[in-house]
């Protein structure tokens, strides 16, 4: 069973203008708004995915180390919840993480039979992951998909024959506001069957200094990661951003639990973007919001699961209790066609 690699037609960069048009439209809407904003999904071109990979190796960015410990410690427990029939192991926002390899190796070693479906918006990351799995576990059936979460979920909809285990790791869910997280989880619920499993990585609320350090590292990789979104606009949309005249700012809103990233204009400037067809004025110290990374309490996680139609099986954590992979079961008992919550 050879590893194969598929690109959803509308996301095939080389052969379609749709993706670039969508990017241009999102930039137009985001930068025309009185509070300027850019969507964090646009961080992840190949340069951005590589910078994120570097972030995961920073001493300050505890999230990846913590989740790796969770998965190493609890992989047998997770495997124990899986029925012994061939299943789909779907990973949303897979990137090219080695954390998943830990699970794959373990499941394979337990004799579990599964098809691995990593879904990510970065083509280069998906490519690397698919070939890494192909090399290490050649017997494992792998089907990479380059798509955003919602297109990935749509694709999932058409594969209902097997049990599914969906991985949504790394605190990717933190990028959603509460409303977006509910929308996303209900969408996912809709595409899954009663009894399917979902493993979601949540970063927990913790000491504020640790949070601020994790998103303002000393080497400036997070800053480069954030600024890369402007460089991407320059590269792909013919933007004329002077990167030097913006600075990264990461702050924490204790009330909402949101780590927030901004790019702040250091001077008054007009920036022309060719494919958007206009320029945008930035006042001195005017921010562009680029990312939320929400932090959770266990009680927040429980509320979220209850609101979206899932039953929590177990919260799996590590020695410092900084991060949780929460294992949920899709609950669709009596009225299978009713949507959960409101
Ligand atoms: C990949 C979304 C989980 O929010 O912590 C890292 C991205 N941003 N440093 C996060 C990120 C700044 C990361 N996620």
Please characterize this protein's 3D structure.
37% of the residues lie in helices and 25% in strands. The strands form 3 sheets. It has an 8-stranded mixed beta sheet, sandwiched between helices. A 3-stranded antiparallel beta sheet has the order 7-8-11. The radius of gyration is 20 Å and the shape is globular. Strand 3, helix 5 and strand 4 form a beta-alpha-beta unit. It contains 10 helices and 13 strands. The chain is α/β, with parallel strands linked by helices and 342 residues long. The structure holds N,N,N-trimethyl-histidine (AVJ). N,N,N-trimethyl-histidine binds next to helix 2, helix 9 and strand 11.
Descriptors:
eight-stranded mixed beta sheet, binds N,N,N-trimethyl-histidine
Give the structure's gist in a few sentences.
This protein has 342 residues and is an alpha/beta fold.
Topology of helices and strands:
Blueprint: E1 4-7, H1 18-32, H2 46-55, H3 62-80, E2 87-92, H4 99-109, E3 114-120, H5 123-136, E4 141-146, H6 149-157, E5 163-168, H7 178-191, E6 197-203, H8 208-214, H9 221-237, E7 246-253, E8 258-265, E9 269-273, E10 278-282, E11 287-294, H10 298-308, E12 310-317, E13 323-330
Parallel strand pairs: 1-4, 2-3, 2-5, 3-4, 5-6
Antiparallel strand pairs: 6-13, 7-8, 8-11, 9-10, 12-13
Helix pairs in contact: 2-9, 3-4, 6-7
The structure holds N,N,N-trimethyl-histidine.
């Amino acid at each position: 069973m050879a590893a194969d690699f598929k690109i959803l037609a509308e996301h095939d960069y080389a052969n379609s203008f749709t993706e670039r048009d969508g990017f241009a439209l999102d930039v137009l809407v985001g930068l025309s708004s009185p509070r300027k904003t850019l969507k964090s999904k646009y961080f992840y071109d190949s340069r951005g995915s590589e910078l994120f990979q570097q972030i995961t190796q920073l001493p300050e960015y505890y999230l990846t180390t913590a989740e790796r410990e969770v998965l190493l410690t609890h992989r047998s427990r997770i495997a124990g919840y899986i029925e012994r029939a061939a299943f789909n192991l779907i990973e949303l926002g897979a990137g090219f993480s080695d954390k998943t390899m830990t699970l794959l190796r373990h499941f394979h070693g337990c004799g579990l039979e599964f098809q691995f479906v990593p879904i990510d918006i970065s083509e280069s990351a998906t490519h690397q992951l698919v070939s890494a799995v192909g090399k290490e576990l050649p017997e494992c059936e792998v089907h990479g998909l380059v798509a955003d979460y919602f297109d990935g979920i749509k694709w999932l909809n058409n594969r209902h024959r097997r049990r599914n285990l969906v991985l949504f790791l790394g605190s990717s869910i933190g990028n959603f506001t509460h409303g977006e997280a509910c929308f996303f989880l209900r969408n996912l619920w809709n595409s899954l069957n009663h009894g399917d499993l979902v493993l979601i990585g949540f970063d927990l609320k913790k000491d504020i200094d640790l949070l601020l350090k994790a998103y303002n590292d000393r080497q400036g990789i997070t800053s480069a990661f954030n600024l890369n979104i402007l460089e991407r606009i320059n590269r792909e949309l013919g933007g004329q951003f002077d990167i030097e005249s913006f600075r990264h700012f990461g702050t924490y809103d204790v009330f909402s639990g949101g780590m927030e990233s901004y790019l702040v204009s250091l001077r008054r400037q007009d920036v022309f973007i060719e494919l958007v067809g206009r320029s945008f004025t930035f006042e001195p110290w005017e921010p562009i919001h680029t990312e939320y990374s929400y932090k959770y309490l266990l009680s927040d996680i429980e509320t979220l699961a209850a609101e979206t139609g899932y039953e929590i099986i177990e919260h799996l954590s590590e020695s410092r209790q900084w991060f949780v992979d929460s294992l949920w079961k899709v609950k669709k008992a009596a009225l299978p066609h009713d949507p959960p919550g409101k």
